[in-house]
Automatic annotation (TrEMBL), chains A, B:
InterPro entries: Ald_DH/histidinol_DH, Ald_DH_C, Ald_DH_N, Aldehyde_DH_dom, Aldehyde_DH_Superfamily, ALDH_KGSADH. It comes from the Bacteria. Signal peptide: none annotated. The keyword Oxidoreductase applies. This is Aldehyde dehydrogenase. Residues 35-338 form the Aldehyde dehydrogenase domain. Keywords: Oxidoreductase, Plasmid. One of its GO terms (molecular function) is oxidoreductase activity, acting on the aldehyde or oxo group of donors, NAD or NADP as acceptor. PANTHER family: ALDEHYDE DEHYDROGENASE-RELATED, SUCCINATE-SEMIALDEHYDE DEHYDROGENASE, MITOCHONDRIAL. It holds the Pfam family Aldedh.
Length: 507, 507
């Protein structure tokens, strides 16, 4: 499998001439072989125009063909073989095991959406029979189905080079809904993106679909991505990344002549709440699981537990002491990109300098491209007074907030912004306290979990990977799990249609 | 039943002190008895605070209680009796028959949502069983349900003083979803609003709900409504009205610290397309049905057929001639408010003066408060060159666009903005032409209908009263029919919850 650095537009390929950039080896900061050419406005225009043409055919593919296409993508991605893992390792610094697992998840995701397509429930077919004799007015025949929104722009995520990138969750759910996809590759893993993009391109060809069903572009800055979101033929956006990036796309989308939905998964510090009885009975055990979740993948997960709330006292001292001891043994890990490593160390330094924050442990330090785990603590008063302590530090940094009592913990919860997850650690004696808190947490986050951590996002029908703003741009949606398909659909009603004119599914 | 002009805030009432206004008799422009006091910022604040408190209880009402509450609202509105119809007639100028029908629709709507609540499907319950032995990682127990967004601000519509006002579709669907409601009464029918508001207040009391579950405020300008949408405790907005009003609320909602969804149903000219065979066979019959739909309720329907596309020629001449003859016999009808009458006559005058537009018929003229029907025609070239010809003229004005051939008609369709409805008039010989156009129309509107007109919106499971921007702010939703409940819900996932902590529905 060759990496050339070309844009993949609608079944063909070409060199992008709007600047160039290299993939960077995460471990060294050195450029990797092959440069990638950025898309010109004309390239974006061409991809959008082809996607629009493809949409007219792709939207009405029968469910079986569409499902088979998703499975073909999975096959083609799988057939890239080890060169995909090797390139992804170099570009992201993520270890082999993690990337192999992520590939399995990516393939599983595509196959799960194939199943969802075959199931057909997403079409939301509804039939209201006519009653010509009804008084005062005859009742018409009404039938409803969901139709796809149109071509979708997908922005690959830095931290999931496979599962939330070129053939990741946004792409799989948009294609499942009947929408062509144009991916803007994340510049943190352009080679990985090209390999997967070529696999999707092959799947489009094998399935005899219009080549405009899929395109992949590179962007040396923000120009191509912004032009994509502004293009009138793009009808929805899927994005995983920073709050700044997500809100910038929301702004562009809302200023269009026809505004479009942006599904941006942006930032979350995923509060962990330790309840008193659990803390008393299992401080060491929970501390160990917490540190494991905090440092997983160098902390570069959207669901990384960045905030921990608990009641001050001897049990919390036991917890922090255990966590500190374990954290001190953690080796520095390569981060996804040099700039992410830099942002992480800046974020940690800011916490270290904060007058109200105490550093309680650091993992082993490494190179400038690696992130050392870090654990901090502060008081509830300080946390409530300093809103910047809610800022996500993307990486393995955690902040423990010591609360005087449950009422103050409640106050801290009230002050939190929208989150992807909230994790509750409880034992039998905590039932009353947790019961009274849950209603509040349901409004705060998309997923609540008990005696676990948010890292490890199951891809399944009952998953919500979403949450109120600013965790995402639209708390009514999820980007993981089968419910994600509904983001790219809207209902249309057909009144008194002769059968011959009805869409097949409504006949 | 007494009208006092008071704000109804959370079970109590008080005089609004932020200016005052009167209901206006539509037929004369004279003020009706009783003045209404506008809400102060403190009143809005209090309603929002009470709604938030009520939300914590109302969101977890069991389905049976919530359904019974909706039915109690219907009962209480019904029990107002004829004084409701009499006051609504005076305030809106709508005839008794129409208002009695609208009341029946309003009651039916409330009862339909009661049924939808009992059915429980809107909860979207999903269960993924655990598998502790799964490799490489155990599968967690995941359960999902929809939860209500929070208190909803509803802006009553001028043209449906009952069915899209205080206890109308937005209110019914929000309450069904588990959201308290604060209604900003439309100043075109404040007395009608107060009567219905008191009925809802009585229903809240009878159902033993928290009084903050419902409030009704008056606004002498835009201040109270804007403050309502900006209030952090309001979590969604339902609005039916002008494009200017809707986009202003969208702007406020997007600028909040936590942006919220705005469901604004704004403007639509509801294209009617006459295909050649139908026009040849049934020009007179369709013309008669068209004129009836155009002038229904003085044309003051969101789904009023304001635009008609057809091929130029003798058949269209027959159509226009018939329509012109029928229209000339139509009496002027009182419009909802003096300002709506003024806007209508300005809109008609603008079309009369337009160099590319020809007036082909006018209905009988009446008082300054009445609207005379008007029919215009133009060429496809002119329509394509003058975007302002797409502007909605709210009232019984129609514009016929003469197209040279089907290709040009297609071009006109391409130039149209998002619509609520598109009506197709076809006969057997039109099948090919209509088949090729339907995919385009599915992207243009929320409801497509054959051999009928969009006026008369069925309240049922398969109805879509929505459509791409600018017909509405969010083409993924409907404001009429049971699907409307989904606007006020979001999914939450519960992972590894002990049964005792799960919401009842998920146990």
């Amino acid at each position: 499998m060759t990496i050339i650095g070309n844009l993949l537009i609608a079944g063909s390929e070409k060199r992008g001439t709007n600047g160039e950039f290299h993939g960077i080896e995460s471990a060294t900061g050195n450029p990797l072989p092959v440069s990638f050419g950025g898309a010109t406005p004309e390239d974006v225009e061409r991809a959008a125009s082809k996607a629009w043409a493809a949409f007219q055919l792709y939207r009405e593919t029968d469910l079986e063909s569409r499902a088979a296409f998703l499975e073909t993508i999975a096959e083609e991605v799988e057939s890239i073989g080890d060169s995909l893992i090797v390139r992804a390792m170099a570009e992201t610094g993520l270890p082999r095991g993690r990337l192999e697992g992520e590939r399995a998840r990516t393939l599983g995701q595509l196959r799960l959406f194939a199943k969802e397509v075959r199931d057909g429930r997403f079409q939301e077919l509804r039939f209201d029979g006519a009653d010509p004799s009804r008084k005062p007015a005859p009742k018409p025949d009404l039938r409803l189905r969901n139709v796809p929104l149109g071509p979708v722009a997908v922005f690959g995520a830095s931290n999931f080079p496979l599962a939330f990138s070129v053939a990741g969750g946004d792409t799989a759910s948009a294609l499942a809904a009947g929408c062509p996809v144009i991916v803007k590759a994340h510049s943190a893993h352009p080679g990985t993106s090209e390999l997967v993009g070529r696999a999707v391109q092959r799947a489009v060809a094998r399935a005899n679909l219009h080549p405009g069903t899929f395109s992949l572009i590179f962007d040396t800055g923000f120009e191509a991505g912004q032009k994509l979101v502004a293009d009138p033929r793009i009808r929805a956006v899927g994005f995983t990344g920073s709050r700044r990036g997500g809100t910038a796309l929301m702004e562009i989308a809302s200023r269009r002549k026809q505004p479009i939905p942006v599904y941006a998964e942006m930032s979350s510090i995923n509060p962990v709440i330790l309840f008193p009885d659990a803390l008393k009975n299992r401080a060491r055990e929970i501390a160990s699981a917490f540190v494991a979740s905090l440092v997983l993948g160098a902390g570069q997960f959207c669901t990384n537990p960045g905030l921990l709330l608990a009641l001050d006292g001897a049990d919390l001292d036991t917890f922090t002491q255990t966590a500190a001891e374990l954290l001190a043994e953690i080796s520095a890990q390569p981060m996804l990109t040099p700039s992410i490593a830099k942002a992480y160390s800046d974020g940690v330094a800011k916490l270290e300098r904060h007058p109200e924050v105490r550093s309680i442990a650091s993992g082993k330090t490494g190179s400038a491209y690696e992130g050392a785990a870090a654990l901090f603590e502060t008081s509830a008063e300080a946390f409530l007074a300093h809103h910047e302590l809610q800022d996500e530090v993307f990486g393995a940094a955690g902040l423990i907030v010591r609360c005087r009592n449950l009422a103050q913990l409640d106050e801290v919860v009230d002050a939190l912004e929208g989150q992807l997850t909230v994790a509750l650690h409880i034992d039998d004696g905590d039932q009353e306290a947790v019961t009274s808190l849950i209603p509040k947490l349901e409004l705060l986050a998309g997923r609540l979990l008990v005696n676990g951590f948010g890292t490890g996002v199951e891809v399944s029908p009952a998953m919500v990977h979403g949450g109120p703003y600013p965790a995402t741009s639209d708390g009514r949606s999820t980007s993981v799990g089968t419910l994600a398909i509904y983001r790219f659909l809207r209902p249309v009603s057909y009144q008194d249609f002769p059968v011959i004119l009805l869409p097949q599914a409504l006949r």
